Amino acid sequence: SKSILLMFFFRASSVTEQANIIIGTYNKYMFFNHLLACPSHRHVFTATASHNKTITSPNYPSHPDSDLNCNWLLEVNSSLASDEYIVKVEFGDFDVACDDALKFYDGDSITVSNLLRSYCGGTHPEVIYSTGRYLFVNFYTDNDYFTFRGFSFSFSAVKKGIVLSLMDYTLHVP
Question: Do the bridges between strand 101-106 and strand 134-140 make them parallel or antiparallel, or are there none, so unpaired?
Fold first, then answer.
């Protein structure tokens, strides 16, 4: 856990002006606090075939902060043939409050039509595959119950194969 001290100095001529400056300072602190809690906000991560990379929820393995909206774009490395590789996600740990959600979208943005799955609770999600070069991930928290660990998942680029969906399970056959 990282601690950062932000100090603001100001001069105001009236109580009203002081109150407005304090409120503005508080709002700036909350903005910066959310950026620090989710430092990869709308960050692009490159998936390679040679090794896995890991993403965790903010504060993992402690509870994530409330009112976060983290977005990560996972993309296949441009040096790989983009029509031959897809993104693969495997979970190491998962414990997310059901007021919160971890959502995966097939593509490079959030749209209802490309929502693959939304996860919460303590059930370990199955392996997730994109159908193309991009997988967009959104983690939203609206939870004030600080008993959940959050999540940890790894991702990599894998060669396309046949992906069969059987009930709620996905099987990837190279």
Answer: antiparallel
Gap between the Cα atoms of 106 and 133, Å rounded:
9
What amino acid occupies position 120?
Answer: C
Predicted TM-score of the model (pTM): 0.70
pLDDT of residue 8: 44
Radius of gyration (Cα) for the chain, nearest Å? 20
153: number of Cβ within 10 Å: 23
Enter the DSSP assignment of 18: H
- In this predicted model, what pLDDT tens digit does every residue of 55-97 receive, in sequence order? 999 888 888 887 888 899 999 998 887 789 999 999 999 999 8
Tell me the two tokens of residue 163.
């992906």
Bin 51: left if φ > 0, else alpha if -120 < ψ < 50, else beta: beta
Largest CA distance in the chain: 70
SS3 string, 22-59, reads HHHHHHHHHHHHHHHHCCCCCEEEEECCCCCEEEECCC
Whether the Cβ atoms of residue 161 and residue 172 lie closer than 8 Å to each other: yes
- Tens digit of each residue's pLDDT (9 = 90 or more) over 114-133: 999 999 999 888 999 999 99
Q: In the structure, how many helices (H) and strands (E) does the chain have?
A: 1, 11
Residues listed for the chain: 174
